[in-house]
Design goal:
3 copies of one chain form a homotrimer. Chain A is of the alpha+beta class and about 375 residues long. Chain A folds into 2 domains: about 240 residues, Naphthalene 1,2-dioxygenase Alpha Subunit, Chain A, domain 1 (Alpha-Beta Complex), CATH 3.90.380; about 100 residues, 3-layer Sandwich (Rieske Iron-sulfur Protein), CATH 2.102.10. In chain A, about 25% of the residues lie in helices and about 30% in strands. The first copy, chain A, has 8 helices and 21 strands. The first copy, chain A, has a 7-stranded antiparallel β-sheet. A 4-stranded antiparallel β-sheet of chain A has the order 2-3-4-8, with no helix packed on it. The first copy, chain A, has a 3-stranded antiparallel β-sheet with strand order 1-10-9, with no helix packed on it. The longest helix of chain A is centred in the last third of the chain and has 33 residues. In chain A, about 45% of the residues are buried.
């Protein structure tokens, strides 16, 4: 990219007179993205590791602004709206009195886990009119278990095939998935922008165990490229250090940095990042819970045999989890929680951010019905 | 009750098309009940055990939305508005420099505990105009001590005789009262409805030590009956278990359950529940503090001699308190705090709830003056 | 002052019909004071002890409602707006990659600490347009270090000489300053009024180690006197005890109280109290942080030689700090946090408070520009 082109490209973002306003107040040039305070509903989202949902020990959580109960009965996992329509208490603390059902802990209303239909109201006897009439129902959500994970669909429309939303690496027989799931402060879009952000890796993450041996570029020129369903970026004209006039040389040359850094960073809807490492891939999801908070799911995915699986688990536990999913990404959590935009003043590497905003604007799957009613 | 009648009676509550809207938003068919966010003021309420208010150690709390200071001087207990009109600080941390008075801890303004009148402003000397003029006064509330408890009246009108509001069991010479007083989350009306609720006992409370030996009905038909000042309900057509088509038998037959459960459940204004056990009665009050929170007072009351008193105290400490006032009623606290209505869909046993709402609507004692000004 | 005069003077404050409304709602007779929810900006404020700001360990805090980063580079301390205009994260966690600059921890934007100008965006390389264009700037605040303290000026206008706002005792070569800095709940004006309040010392502070040996007046008549930049009050007609008709004698005569109390209490803008003790002076500042909270800075100041300095530090650590800056002033913190005015009913000694309000109204230094824009 020539200097002339560059200054044209950056002028749009960098000048205070042209501050790109963000997505927390007013209207911006990305209305679809702006409105998605609670994310996009017409997608499959990962929620928990399968082993975290134990038989008859329900789990209650908030996803996309809605209360969800997860419950396992006879091995199968179910998701339903976490509110008994009788007196408004959560269902996830309920019991499994009959297989394939959940009983509300308060008055013994029994719901079919598949359909959400009220099957009986135990404390009104077997002839209870409320159950016989058959018009009480709790909303259920499609749920699938693949790759050791529970995936839930909360959209209004017909769910697409799981394969449309779950990266194919998760779906093989010999896939191993390990990871860390946390709740974090910060808007899910700030989290996604931070994940795909080109510039921060080169400064924020320079410190820490995970990058200690890696030779990280100090800057580069990246070009966004759509590779559907992914958005990716290719780094060109990489620089590893320079003299800054009037300031000095940066970064300090550190002889021990010789290992290559991560390459191949891509992002897709509904907010899924993929980073390619030598032998495995790292994924992360940003799932909005309530406004300004999100569920942060990080996974290492590898296809391997039994021994490889054991070694990966060991390496994960003692190296990747504490230093990559822990220390490294806690540096991001620190920023994501404190980030306050708009206003913002963008610079050249933020083309990664604006290309993602544009990508969402163009490609977000939305339900026509709910759009009309909005 | 015939099936035809029943389905008529329940239709009003159970069909989603006829959802009875509750009392947190908008207008309902029970406006008096709806408006009582902070309860009804024209009643005597129990507040503390007498022994909890020690000489010259004031207690500050919030009742019916108002700050109250309790103070004991020379054996007698007093209640007053917990705010010095000088600079707005609470009085309950104050001192007793002269008998029958409380001194504000900040500037030494001395109030007569009986009338609330400012008697002196110590830090302005004995000639202080502010005290001589006699026009500064803190509101005081009528207070009585009976049955080992402190009762306070916060209404605008003339207080009725204590006997009108305090169940007669509390007023005998040989009455023993033991109990537990806690602050809980949840609307006081949710707490009252939960207390008188017919259905939940049969499911929510089936687990736990307190009911372990008791043979509890699984359902029944109850008829509300006014027995002023009480509202009571008589259970008929009790069932202990049945086959639910397509589900199975419920509840499991448990041979060890043979002791009778509680009988005789009644409720009255301003939010007082009474349950008859074999040798004693259990009472509970739900006293609103601020919107969405209440003070929960549980008492065991028995008329007995000295030895009986000792035995009751032992039994209370080691059995009734941990398992009934503790574990059993903490199951209720769990529900009351999480309950979210409206909307709600009621079923047959909720006639207990609607009869209580109707009872309040008809019988609540209110002050005409304050109604007019409202 | 004759009784007739007195009752005229107090009538304005004490009668409920003439309640002086305070400063939290509506308009009062002191509009400048009322509006100063976040204090007065055109003054130098003490912020930290110099030794609390260590080389390259930035400190972030909120002052007068604004986020401020303090940073020390090569011995010199700087203050700047604690927000990177790029993505809105705080700067105080940043690094010093080049002397006289701070680098944002997120993307390596380098700011000149003196001017706040963006010097480089490290992760966009040495040719980054955003830095070359020179139109990105973070606001910086004038900062001075004197008397072992960091002083910051956050006004819109030209800062006055430090000597205009810092009491001269802080500015000598042989001055020693020790003290305690805390964050407290409560409006800074409640804190200032409490500090200069004539009456409370005589009651609230009667208990405690600090005043145990002191013979404190029980009341007096004080006359406000302007001694610019100070407002001071002279106590006359002091009384040490009296019989209160119908109540009794107060205070109890305590033979061990013989040491003189503090004399010479004065206050000045922007909220600075000075109390003269025998060998040293006590100062305190109330610096608003956010509405309803303030930073409370207490200092003991003395001019002395090396040995005197050592002795003062010992005495401070083991006596003055725990019992005066600790226990004694925590009694004030208790009140300041709970104070709720308006409404208020004032009495004679509150002339100290109203004279301070009037003093602020008349003398507060304000910026004409910001007034016009308001």
């Amino acid at each position: 990219m020539s200097t002339a082109q560059e200054s044209l490209a950056t002028a749009r973002y960098e000048s205070p007179r042209h501050q790109v306003t963000g997505y927390q107040e007013g209207k911006t040039i990305y209305p679809v993205y702006d409105d998605a305070v609670l994310g996009f509903r017409e997608y499959w989202y990962p929620v928990l590791f399968s082993h975290q949902l134990r038989e008859q020990k329900g789990v209650g959580l908030t996803l996309l602004g809605e209360k969800v109960a997860l419950f396992r009965s006879e091995g199968r996992a179910y998701a339903l709206h976490n509110r008994c329509p009788h007196r408004g208490v959560p269902l996830h603390g309920g019991f499994c009195d009959f297989k394939g059902t959940i009983t509300c802990p308060y008055h013994g209303w029994v719901y079919d886990l598949d359909s959400g239909k009220l099957m009986a109201a135990l404390t009104a006897g077997p002839d209870a009119a409320i159950a016989r009439r058959g018009n009480v129902q709790v909303r259920t959500f499609p749920l699938e278990e693949r790759g050791g994970l529970i995936w839930v669909f909360m959209g209004e429309g017909e769910p697409p095939p799981l394969e449309d939303d779950v990266p194919e690496e998760f779906l093989h027989e010999d896939t191993v998935v390990v990871g860390r799931i946390t709740e974090r402060g910060g808007d899910w879009r700030h989290a996604a922008e931070n994940g795909y952000d080109e510039g921060h890796v080169k400064y924020l993450h320079r410190r820490g165990v995970w990058t200690f041996w890696r030779r990280a570029p100090a800057w580069g020129h990246s070009k966004p490229r759509e590779d559907l369903p992914w958005l990716t970026r290719d780094l060109e004209d990489i620089g590893y250090g320079a003299e800054y006039p009037g300031l000095g040389y940066w970064p300090k040359k550190q002889f021990w940095r010789h290992r290559p850094g991560a390459r191949g960073i891509r992002i897709r809807l509904p907010g899924t990042l993929r980073i390619q490492y030598l032998n495995w891939a790292h994924f992360e999801w940003y799932v909005p819970t309530e406004p300004g908070r999100h569920r942060y799911l990080q996974f290492i995915v590898k296809r391997t045999g039994l021994l490889g699986k054991l070694l990966l688990k060991l390496k994960y536990r003692f190296y990747i989890r504490p230093f990559f999913h822990g220390q490294f990404n806690d540096q991001d959590a620190w920023m994501v929680e404190l980030m306050e935009t708009p206003p913002e003043i963008l610079y050249r590497p933020d083309r990664s951010i604006t290309s993602w905003r544009k990508f969402v604007e163009t490609h977000a799957r939305r339900n026509n019905t709910s759009e009309e009613s909005a």
